[in-house]
Design a protein that fits this description.
An eight-stranded mixed β-sheet has the order 6-7-8-3-9-10-12-11, with helices on both faces. It has helices at 47-54, 77-84, 104-114, 120-133, 150-162, 180-197, 208-214, 232-237, 242-249, 256-259, 292-296, 318-328, and strands at 2-10, 20-29, 36-40, 62-67, 70-71, 87-91, 168-172, 200-204, 217-222, 225-231, 302-305, 308-310. Strand 11 (302-305) and strand 12 form a beta hairpin. The protein is globular. The protein is built from twelve helices and twelve strands. It has a domain at 233-329. It has 329 residues and is an alpha/beta fold. It binds iron/sulfur cluster (SF4) and magnesium ion. Magnesium ion (MG) is lined by residues 47-48. GO terms for molecular function: ATP binding; ATP hydrolysis activity.
Length: 329
C-alpha cells in the first residue's frame, strides 16, 4: 500500500537558485496480491520514479509504503536487506543489466551467494531450476550474455530477479527494447511465472496495448500525479478522467470499421514542464472540459465507485459523469 508517495528532486543551483522538480507528488494506491497493476502515462510523468522509490532504490521525500503489514520506508540496513528479497526490479535494457564478463551460471548464483543460501551441487541445482522456470536449456549456464538474443537475455534477467522467490516485482518497460514478436513470448513468461510463484507485479510501460494485456488494474499518471486508477476494462473502454480518455483514444484500432466509433481526442498544447506545473488541476492547460474551479483548486483523489479512483472536479456524480462520457460518444 502506497500512501501519499512524494519524490522531489532539486536541480543544480544556477546563480544560487535551485528549483524543485516534483517528480512524484502525492501518489496513493494499493496493490492486490497475486495481481498486476499497470502504470501508464507519457514519458517524464513519474512512473519509473514511483517504481524506484517503492523499492527503496531512490529515497522518497515523504509518504508511506506498507508491504505485508510492515512500514518499509524507514528500515535499518539489516531489515532492508531482508525486505529486499521480496521486492525486485526488472527493467528495460537486457543488454546493460547483465555483466558481460560473467557466465550465466555465475550471474544466477550471485543472489544466492549474497544471501548465503546455497553452495556446490545445491547451488547448481538452483541455477538449473531457474533456467527451467524461464524456459532456457541447462546448457545456457556455461554461456556468456553476448551469446544470447535479446529475448533470451531478458529471460536471464527475469531468472535473476526471481532467484530469491520475491513476492513483488516492479517491471519497468520490461519488453520495450524487444522485437514485437519476442515481446509476446516474454509477456507470456511473466504471466506463467505469476501463476506459478504467486507474484504481484507493478508493470510500468508507455505501451498501452501491452499494459491492457497484462494488467488487472491500471493507473494513469500525469505530471507526477495519478489521475485515474481502476479495473483494466473500465480504464480502457469507459474512463472518466479527460486525460485517460484522450490517452486511450490514441490507441490505434486495428479494424477500419471500428475506427469510426472512436474519435481520437486531440489535446491542446504541449506537456508542461514538471519544473513549473500548472496551478489547480495539473491537466487544466490541455483539458477540453476545463472550468474556473480547475484553474484554482486541485481536484481530490477520490474513490468514486469500488476500486475506481479519479482526480477530477467534473467527476462527482452520475450526472456529471455522463457529461464527459457523452462528449466522447
Ligand atoms: Fe479537466 Fe477540470 Fe477535470 Fe482537470 S479537474 S481534468 S481541468 S475537468
Ligand atoms: Mg521510465
Amino acid at each position: 500500500a502506497v500512501k501519499n508517495l512524494t519524490k522531489y528532486y532539486h536541480t543544480k543551483p544556477f546563480f544560487g537558485h535551485s528549483k524543485v522538480i516534483k517528480a512524484v507528488d502525492g501518489v496513493s494506491f494499493e496493490l492486490q496480491a497475486g495481481k498486476t497493476m499497470g502504470l501508464v502515462g507519457e514519458s517524464g510523468c513519474g512512473k519509473s520514479t514511483v517504481g524506484k522509490t517503492i523499492l527503496n532504490l531512490d529515497r522518497l521525500t515523504s509518504g508511506s509504503i506498507v508491504f505485508d503489514g510492515q512500514e518499509i520506508t524507514h528500515l535499518n540496513r539489516d531489515e532492508l536487506r531482508k525486505t529486499r528479497r521480496n521486492l525486485q526490479l526488472i527493467f528495460q535494457d537486457p543488454y546493460s543489466s547483465l555483466n558481460a564478463r560473467m557466465k550465466v551460471a555465475e550471474i544466477l548464483a550471485e543472489p544466492f551467494k549474497i544471501h548465503r543460501l546455497y553452495r556446490g551441487a545445491e547451488l547448481r541445482a538452483q541455477v538449473e531450476q531457474l533456467l527451467d522456470l524461464v524456459g532456457l536449456p541447462p546448457s545456457s549456464a556455461q554461456k556468456y550474455p553476448h551469446e544470447f538474443s535479446g529475448g533470451q537475455r531478458q529471460r536471464i534477467v527475469i531468472a535473476r530477479a526471481i532467484a530469491l522467490r520475491p513476492r513483488f516485482v516492479v517491471c519497468d518497460e520490461p519488453v520495450s527494447a524487444l522485437d514485437v514478436s519476442v515481446q509476446s513470448q516474454i509477456i507470456n513468461l511473466f504471466s506463467s511465472l505469476q501463476k506459478e510463484l504467486g507474484l504481484t507485479y507493478l508493470f510500468i510501460s508507455h505501451d498501452l496495448s501491452v499494459v491492457r494485456y497484462v494488467s488487472d488494474e491500471v493507473g494513469v499518471m500525469y505530471l507526477g500525479k495519478l489521475v485515474e486508477l481502476g479495473q483494466v476494462d473500465r480504464i480502457y473502454s469507459n474512463a472518466l478522467h479527460p486525460y485517460t480518455q484522450a490517452l486511450m483514444s490514441s490507441i490505434p484500432v486495428p479494424h477500419p470499421r471500428l475506427q469510426r466509433s472512436r474519435e481520437k481526442i486531440i489535446l491542446a498544447g504541449d506537456l508542461p514542464s514538471p519544473l513549473n506545473p500548472p496551478q489547480g488541476c495539473h491537466f487544466h492547460t490541455r483539458c477540453n472540459f476545463c472550468e474556473e474551479q480547475c484553474r484554482q483548486e486541485e481536484p481530490r483523489w477520490r474513490e468514486i465507485e469500488p476500486r475506481h479512483w479519479v482526480a477530477c472536479h467534473l467527476v462527482k456524480s452520475k450526472t456529471v459523469k455522463s457529461k464527459t462520457e457523452g462528449r466522447e460518444a
